[in-house]
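Field guide to reading this record: the first block holds the primary sequence, the second block holds the structure written as discrete tokens, and the final block holds curator observations. Each block starts with its own label. This record concerns UPF0311 protein BDK89_2676, catalogued under organism Ilumatobacter fluminis.

BLOCK 1 — SEQUENCE
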Amino acid sequence: MELRHLMTIRIAVNPVESFGRFPFGERRLITFDEGTFEGADLRGTLLPGGVDWQLVAPDGTLEIRAHYALRTDRGESIEVVSEGVRAAPPEVLARLAAGEQVDPDEYYFRTHIRLSTDSERLDRLNRVLGVARGERAPGGVAIHVHEVL
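BLOCK 2 — STRUCTURE
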């Protein structure tokens, strides 16, 4: 299996909203209203209204379920559905929670991504399975999306 870089998405995230303890962990909601993306033939902005529903397991592992929309600089719309996991030792999770810049090699942040578009030019994205490596930064995330060839 081969991978090819498709795009990097940078998202500014709003503060975490907790919905309390559920049977399998803490349920959280994080919204995002702005961001950018860029790839070889893709660039543009994130549309307002994106959301990441998270489940925080007792050991701190996050289950990620994000859904948001992008608009290219040509006016094309791309829907993004992303599911994955972020895990790290407790001391690294504490540094991330404190808003520190943490080297992404110190934690595991991976997602699988499906894209959908009505753009003829970008129609191939409708048949792409993407995998991504995420990086948590103060105030946001960077998602490095790779197309599975």
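BLOCK 3 — OBSERVATIONS
The longest strand covers residues 25-38.
The longest helix spans residues 90-97.
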